[in-house]
Amino acid sequence: MKVKFWGVRGSIPTPGKETVRYGGNTSCIGLDADDGTVVIFEAGTGIRTLGLKLAGMPSVEIHLFLSHTHWDHIHGFPFFVPAYIPNRVIRIYGPPHFDKSLQQIMAQQMVYSYFPVNSDELQARIKYVDLKEETVEIGGLKITSKLMNHPVTCYAYRVTEGAKSMVYTGDNEPYYNFMASAAMDETEVDEITMIVKEQNDRNIEFVKDCDLLIADAQYTDAEYPTKVGWGHSSNLQVLDLAMKAGAKELVMFHHEPTRSDDQIDEIVKQTREYYAATGHSGIKKISAAVEGEEIII
Ligand SMILES: [Zn+2]
Ligand SMILES: [Zn+2]
User: Measured in angstroms, how far is the CA atom of residue 72 from the centroid of ligand 1?
Assistant: First the structure.
């Protein structure tokens, strides 16, 4: 399968000369399976240019997976040209949120107060699929969703084709014991610590032995203590996940919007140095996602 980054930025687009090398568009990852199946993860602003390419491939059915529906993961969708092409088939998969279906949530950003086209006026044949933790089979692909730790329901996805697999974490922070500082006795704290460990172990199991891990690494380890509970990981947290899970390649994703290209270079350097010092050797490549780059596994 071939993965291509169309948008790598977290939170908000960041155009400008400081971000031009890694790219300023928000999350969007294209995946072309060996059997021709077309999958997209996320509808951040990067999906606009991917849509222009797909508009020229009319017979291809499009499978769009959303980790969650925070703006930076859906705000490119109103500009996704295939959605305006009559009879074009698009399937959109993602989490519902309490009483609202995925379709209802997506429709809310396309009402006339915000956008000149209502979602009912899109001419493509759009089918919405509310996902639980489950596996969807599309052509030769198996795509499994797993709940992650973020302030809204958010899924990671594991894609398997033959012997190859890749995992995309969506927005995610490792589970932690946020109760520990409250007035609790030691036994209760220990019980919660055990639950937290089990949740993190489930995430390691989900990532286990994948060929490629694309992980939300919005923060540095130095920044993380002031961002606890915001739903994102640090560079060393995702390195730890990749090491424990035996991932063969780690790509840091969802870059902090205030981060310049030079700062991202520095984070990659630090992460590689830290990894080299561990003596571990299973990860063959560590990088930060670059808009426009492709990875074949
Ligand atoms: Zn995000
Ligand atoms: Zn989010």
Answer: 5
